[in-house]
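Q: Joint fold for the lines below.
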Amino acid sequence: MKNKLFNPQLVTFEQNASIWEDAIKKSCEKLIENRYVTDRYADSIINVVNEIGPYFILLDNFALPHSNEFNEVSMGGLSLTILKEPVKFPSGRKVQVLCTLAATNRLEHLTLLQELVNFLQVPNIVERLTKVTSYQQLQKILEES
Amino acid sequence: MKIMALCGSGLGSSFMLELNIKAVLDDLDLTDIEVDHSSITQATPDMADYFIVGNDLANSLPNFQHVLTLNNLMDKNELKILLAKELK
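A: Joint structure:
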């Protein structure tokens, strides 16, 4: 039932990124293409990391990048970007799976995040996501949550 | 008693942490505890009895008492051990 969590248009696999800034930009591409956010949204996230740090690394290898620049967001959504190799953030922590959040206000996206919390309870979820290379494979994991 | 989950923006991570805190308090049979979320810039020391943050933000709260930190913000087991030790 959790197929609402990830819109197939916002999911990408086997992405290449050599540094964390690239990873953030890659994770925003689909959101930009599908007009959820402006092309300035990635920079607003990069600024957050430079100012207060990558606090949105929620688990080893897993991040929920976002910023509260509501002006750069026209629709609320969540993208999923899986990198071929992890990138290292300024804190030293590595990330290979990015769920990038676009929020239009403080409340609208909370149901989505509630689903994400449930999804993250699937055993070994991050490790399994790093190996996913198709939407079908992702859907199988989604069905378990 | 009140527990406040905090993150950088008060938008995403802290809300997800709030949900996990509520679930863990339930597991531990700890009742009558209010849980809310906010950002490190909006939070003030009088807002709650305990503040929970990821350890990368722990230094952003120098005047706060009872700051509990997590290595993995979404790790329910780590959270459970932390809350059991502090509140049981």
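Q: Anything notable?
A: The mean pLDDT of chain A is 94. Helices of chain A lie at 20-33, 41-52, 110-119, 125-130, 135-144.
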